[in-house]
Amino acid sequence: MAAVVAAGAEAMVVTHGPDVRYLSGFTGSSGAVALVGGRAALFTDGRYTTQARVEAEGLRVVIDRRSPAVQAVEWLVAAGVTKCAFDAGQTTVAAMEAMKKALPSSLRRSFLVATDGLVARIREVKDEDEIALMRKAAALGCRLFADVLEFVVAGATEAEVAAQLEFKARMYGAEAMSFETIVASGERSALPHGRATGAKLPRRGFVTMDFGVLLGGYCSDMTRTVHLGKGSDLEWDVYHSVLEAQQAGIAAVGPGVSCGEVDEAARAVLRKAGLEKEFSHSTGHGVGLEIHEGPRIAAKQEQVLEPGMVITIEPGAYLSSQSRSRAGKPGYGKPGSGKPGSAAAVFGVRIEDMVLVTEGGGEVLTAASPKAWMEL
Ligand code: ZN
Ligand code: ZN
Question: For residue range 207-244, what is the model confidence (pLDDT) as tens digits?
């Protein structure tokens, strides 16, 4: 509540699903939590009567036909609250108008105090129970990678590889995948977000697999890039530059270190290798109840890492026809420097681990999956 008070409010209404779950345990798709002083209540509708009472045990549960946010606001007004924080980044204009309408006219202009991500910020630092769940989710991801390798063969489609990952995930107890599985093969590996398609895996070339499961409500997220057939020198070089960058990023993780410093540790390696422009995204992100949450591991981010945060470190390099034309440096993208018999060096490499920030540095939660160059 200290953060709520600091924001100039005496109470808070929370409607963003993962925040509601974090505060109450309730997993339904429509719910709101109201907080005032030491009291909290969960509001939802009749579809969730039983579920809400079971999941939000110990919390006051109110069931009503009206929107949970409106119910929450009315409950706070009845409790004598005159200022209430809400997360502007997670509230639609329509929801805000509905909450305003529910207020007595004397409070309509002053009651709602916009804040940004109060609960999300608290969620960035995981407690012991959450860390235990995230370890399990990460371990399940590693198990899937080991299992799927036998299906990573020339001629299989990306979708078939994704389907094997997803089938096994459910068989091993995952509630769902934590995001749409990425399997990007051959030239498609140059797409940082190449969703699995009907494209067939090539006889020679990279296959990037970026996937995660949802287990106990928590997400895992990892990427491995393997090579089918014998790789070229260029492919080998780029892979090892990305791996070195990823290891430098992990080595930089520790309490008190800024997210920008971690990003720079990884980015500097790729810059030195002449691949700065080919690393076209940020180094990582927080992960937890949501697949992408704070903190952002990106250039110039001043936020400082704290023990209990779980982040990803996922540098990549993507060589496309554009990067060939503007690379202008020896070795990369010159005709003939790619696969023998091919003028185009269009491919990508990404390697991603989940890292828990500890008192002493960082602990890789997905360490069970090997990262050494793999030719299948
Ligand atoms: Zn990922
Ligand atoms: Zn990620």
Answer: 999 999 999 999 999 999 999 999 999 999 999 999 99
Residue ranges making up the domain that contains 136 = 128-364
214, 176 Cβ separation under 8 angstroms: yes
Assess if residue 132 is contained within a domain. yes
> What's the Cα-to-Cα distance from 321 to each of 37, 267, 278, 318, 331, rounded to whole Å?
59, 22, 11, 10, 14
247 C-alpha to ligand 1 centroid (Å): 16
Domain harbouring 119, CATH code: 3.40.350.10
- pTM comes to 0.92
Number of domains the chain contains: 2
Backbone angles phi, psi at 71, to 5 degrees: -60, -45
pLDDT tens digits, one per residue of 64-96: 999 999 999 999 999 999 999 999 999 999 999
Q: Tell how far the Cα of 223 is from the centroid of ligand 1, in angstroms.
A: 6
Ligand 1 centroid distance, CA of 178 (Å): 10
| Distance (Å) from CA 86 to ligand 1 centroid | 30
Segment 243-248 mean pLDDT: 98
> Which of 86, 105, 123 is the last residue in one of the domains?
123
Q: Is residue 370 part of a domain?
A: no
Among candidate residues 123, 138, 153, the one where a domain is terminated: 123
246 CA distance to ligand 2 middle (Å): 13
Confidence at residue 323, expressed as pLDDT on a 0 to 100 scale: 66
- pLDDT of 339 > 90? The answer is no
